[in-house]
Specification:
Blueprint: E1 4-15, E2 18-29, E3 33-37, H1 44-51, E4 59-65, E5 70-71, H2 78-81, E6 84-87, H3 98-108, H4 114-124, H5 140-152, E7 158-162, H6 170-187, E8 190-195, H7 198-204, E9 207-212, E10 215-221, H8 222-227, H9 232-238
Parallel strand pairs: 3-8, 3-9, 6-7, 7-8
Antiparallel strand pairs: 1-2, 1-4, 4-5, 9-10
Helix pairs in contact: 3-4, 3-5, 4-5, 5-6
The structure holds adenosine-5'-triphosphate and magnesium ion.
Magnesium ion binds near residues 45, 89 and 162.
Length: about 240
């Protein structure tokens, strides 16, 4: 359970000359739910894009262990990248049916028994009745569940979730949190969950990282992070003294 999946070393990410992320060291371990908390603009989505190997850092290294070897943004093969699936903060769905959206990734990968897998996932996310519906007719919560279903059907080893419940009502938040919990319990999927919500991190995370202004302020097992924070900024964040 303690194998390292990611190693982030001396990483900086810079956009237009502005450094928005500085991480001397961070590891993500096999089978954990690492929640990344932090105020808006802290660099959470940037960190997730680096872990997804979608971007190369301006400095330093983000290394991903495939099970056989270490790879980076520059060296990862298609099959290596396919171990990682990211659900974006603002998912873009194909202008097609729910079913077509969920099937798409499997089609691209040339998977055969796609139909049965798509049906099973749609049942899991309670969208089986809407399988034929066009995504433009969906509510926000339903669309978010399609985005999650599209990721789950690929059975990734690593799931990167960027605020998967932002702007949803409590019922949909509950549904999505249950899916995340099940995925972790049943498949041992390594999950990095970006969220604004301290409560969500409490409910789901095994370990928590707090990012403020591009710096990792504290990384600790969830119980210690919440009950005995070491950094004054973590305490301030937990008591709601940070302005979002
Ligand atoms: N592609 C980009 N080009 C220029 N600036 C960017 C780019 N991506 C991110 N930034 C900037 O980097 C900083 C961190 O952005 P990021 O999206 O990682 O924050 P975040 O923690 O995810 O915020 P939020 O909670 O609002 O989603 C912001 O100031 C943002 O404007
Ligand atoms: Mg973000």
């Amino acid at each position: 359970m303690s194998e390292t999946v990611y190693e982030v070393r001396d990483v900086q990410q810079t956009y237009g000359g502005r450094t928005v992320l500085r991480i001397p060291h961070l590891e993500v371990r096999q089978g954990e739910v690492l929640s990344v908390l932090g105020p808006s603009g802290a660099g959470k989505s940037t960190l997730l894009r680096l872990l997804a190997l979608l971007e190369a850092p301006a400095r330093g290294q983000v290394r991903f262990h495939t099970g056989a070897r270490w790879v980076t943004h520059d060296t990862a093969a298609v099959d290596d990248r396919r171990q990682i699936t990211m659900v974006f903060q603002r998912p873009v769905l194909l202008s097609r049916s729910v079913q077509a959206n969920v099937r798409y990734g499997l089609r691209v990968r040339g998977e055969r028994d796609a139909h049965a897998r798509v049906e099973a996932v749609l049942r899991r996310v309670s969208l089986d009745r809407l399988a034929q519906a066009h995504v433009r007719t969906l509510s926000g919560g339903e669309a978010q569940r399609v985005a999650l279903a599209r990721a789950l059907v690929l059975e990734p080893r690593v799931l990167l979730l960027d605020e998967p419940t932002a702007n949803l009502d409590p019922a949909n938040v509950g549904l999505i949190e249950t899916l995340i919990r099940e995925q972790h319990a049943q498949s041992g999927t390594t999950i990095v969950l970006v969220t604004h919500s301290i409560f969500q991190a409490r409910r789901l995370a095994t370990r928590v990282a707090l990012l403020i202004d591009g710096e990792l302020v504290e990384v600790a097992p969830a119980p210690r992070f919440f009950d005995a924070p070491q950094d004054a900024r973590t305490e301030a964040f937990l008591s709601g003294e940070f302005v979002f």
